[in-house]
Amino acid sequence: MFRMKNSIREQNSIIVLSEIINRPEISRAMISELTGLNKATVSEIVRRLIEDDYVIEIGPGKSTSSGGRRPILLTVNKKAGVSISFDVRYDRISYLITYLDGEKIDYTIEEKEMTKDNIVDSITSVVENFKSTLTDSPFGIIGITISIHGIVNENKIEFTPYFDLDEIDLVSILEQKCDLPIHIENEANLSALAEAAFDYEHEHIVSFSAHTGIGAGVILHGQLHRGSSGRSGEVGHTVLYPNGVNCPCGNQGCLEQYCSTKAVVRKFQRLKGDESLTFDDLVASYHEKDSSTLNMILQFAKDFGIGLMNVIGNYDPEVVYINSELLEEIPELISLLQHYLSMTIYKNVVLKQSLLGKKASLYGATVMNLQKFLHVSNVEFSLNMEKVLEVE
Ligand SMILES: [Zn+2]
User: Fold this and answer.
1) How far is the CA of 249 from the centre of ligand 1 (A)?
2) Which of 178, 238, 283, 300 has CA 20 to 30 A from 49's CA?
3) CA 11: distance to chain centroid?
């Protein structure tokens, strides 16, 4: 029942479907114009897409300038299937369930320590509960994509520095338990896919994530750039201070030992000689203009800026989306970082605070589910960004 009914493999069908997905509405004539396929071919493909529940007709559009018949507009059948995304950190699991257009059905965050011993049950219980409520959906659950804070290559977790997920074959276990397509991908890569899906202007995008670790997701020519083994954008493990702090990656002085949220909170605790202090205490101390905290944050900004410029130098993006809890709380740091860039050859690169925040990798996972299910390489959400930001 939850298997996909059809998969689209024929090249022209994919081209036509991509045009329909990436717009709120479109006519057959417009598809023909945009794709170069003749009208009879487009009509035949659309007939099959409607028959297979991928596409629906939404009524007549405006009449053409020549005054002809008003064309029937088409749109993707948003409610025909459901995507499930998970984001797994060492201290938290969250999930997002959406229709095919990204519209939210459920979004939940659970703070708990995640290990190889509880991850399978944590995921399958959400999926089973949701399955029991899902009726009359032509495609059912189209797929499950899991965002991992670590290195992922060819659907295998290769390295998770702060927990032990790399010790199990998560995809094989979940495929057996859930009987659904399961995909896993690095958190920063998925965040980049999400930023690209909402950014209609740029083709070269970096998403720079700083949470428990630091990583960059890279979109070049509109496509996710993974490198030969999924290690592209592993900026967290570029060396900031030779012979510096030991890192679980095997190196010393890595950027993420100085600029991850975890590292900054640890530094704040040492500065104040109190291990019970939290991230919220750090932010409060900054806003109270405590001078030692201000100095510490200034040093953080300098270190962060070096990491940022290293990524920009490697990939030459037009825009960098920054996704960091700390910069969300102290947004003036973005202007400071932009000022650092303005003094270098990277002055044309635009820095933006990610509006998607902690939901970025979840929306990226939704994009990946759609890409795999529909066999399309590009998904632009026609969903209103404001609607996404309301999701709590
Ligand atoms: Zn490292």
Assistant:
1) 4
2) 178
3) 26
Separation of CA 100 and ligand 1 centre (Å): 37
User: How many angstroms is it from 167 CA to the middle of ligand 1?
Assistant: 19
| CA 231 to ligand 1 centroid distance, Å | 12
Q: What are the tens digits of pLDDT across the range 297-325?
A: 999 999 999 999 999 999 999 999 999 99
CATH number of 80-192+359-389: 3.30.420.40
Q: What is the mean pLDDT of residues 335-356?
A: 95
Cα of 104 vs centre of ligand 1, distance in Å, is: 36
CATH of 11-76, one of 1.10.10.10, 1.10.10.2840, 1.10.1660.10, 1.10.1740.10: 1.10.10.10
- Fold (CATH) for 200-356: Nucleotidyltransferase; domain 5 (3.30.420)
Burial class (CB in 10 A: 0-12, 13-18, 19+), 121: exposed
The rounded Å distance from CA 361 to ligand 1 centre is 22
